[in-house]
Amino acid sequence: MNAPDTHKQAIQALNQFRDSATPGIWPHLDKRQIISEMRARLHNPFNVNQGQQPFCGPASILFELIRKFPLRYVQLCQDLYETGGFQTQTRRIQTSAKLRDASQGNLRMGPADWMVLAALRESENLIFPVEPNAPEIVRNLAGMTKSWEMKGWIKEILGYKNADYLHTYVFRDLRALQKSQEIIDQGGVAFGLITASTLLSHKTPKITAPEHWITLVGNIDIQKGTFGKHDSGQVSFDVFTWAKRVTIAADEGPFEDSFWGVVLGW
Q1: How far apart are CA 155 and CA 236, in angstroms?
Q2: Is 219 left (phi over 0), alpha (psi -120 to 50) or beta?
Q3: How far is residue 22's CA from residue 249's CA, in Å, rounded to a whole number?
Q4: Which of these, 196, 195, 204, 193, lies nearest to 168 by C-alpha position?
Q5: Is 195 exposed, middle or buried (0-12, 13-18, 19+ CB in 10 A)?
Q6: Rounded distance, CA 230 to CA 235, Å?
Q7: What is the SS3 assignment for 263?
Q8: pLDDT in tens, 223-237
Q9: What distance in Å separates the CA atoms of residue 63 and residue 48, rounded to the nearest whole number?
């Protein structure tokens, strides 16, 4: 993996993108707005916002791309805007004319994020098209991200050589958290698959299911419970989700019921 880019390099590249005379091929996206949003994200990656689209997996990847490799982010966006695609580590992702033509009306998010997230999502979809104004059930089906897709993006988009998915029913939840902290401390990335209503909204859903990806960003604290009382411990950790930094704090029982696994890159 290459060394992280500098913020100064990224800003210089963004200004060159701003001044480029090459026209874009997204007929309904405004370049000035895209540049403005990209600048805000380079200043603070927590501005990445999936809005009302089911793009939590790609948004988690985009957040870490901006945070760790800002120059690569700018280069990717310029290539995507001007040519409709971009080169990953081993292949080229090329958006369809249908996707680019559909980028109008109510995107439910900003155009800078939409352009990248929709391109990533379309690159993995074999059946369901990415359509911003489709019914919610269709958008949710098209937006579902699987663990192997996260592993692929970790290598292809972020450039890490290694990626692994720790199933918590094998590695247990607390061990997965401990491993996540080790990987983060080494400069790697960790993405958790959770039940959002339980861990983020503190609600009790009728059905507990894996349905939301988050980015673990550190401050992982594990308070083990009393011996013989398996669910008496507590955990807390900071994550990126829905355009903000959130501290998840939960008792061990609800946490284990709602934390399904973690994808690691290093």
Answers
A1: 28
A2: left
A3: 48
A4: 193
A5: buried
A6: 13
A7: strand
A8: 987 755 656 789 999
A9: 6
The tokens for 17 are 């993108």
pLDDT in tens, 30-80: 999 999 999 999 999 999 999 988 899 999 999 999 999 999 999 999 999
Tokens 């895209």 locate to 34
Asked if 89 contacts 2 with a C-beta cutoff of 8 angstroms, the reply is no
Number of helices (H), then strands (E), belonging to the chain: the values are 12, 8
Place of tokens 């100064």: 8
**How many residues would you count in the chain?**
266
Distance, in Å, from the CA atom of 48 to the CA atom of 109, rounded to the nearest integer, reads: 10
Half-sphere exposure of 112 (CA within 13 A, CB side): 25
Q: Which of 216, 205, 212 is nearest to 260 (CA)?
A: 212
Across 10-27, b (16+ Cβ under 10 Å) vs e yields bbebbeebeeeeeebebe
Beta carbons of 191 and 214 less than 8 angstroms apart = yes
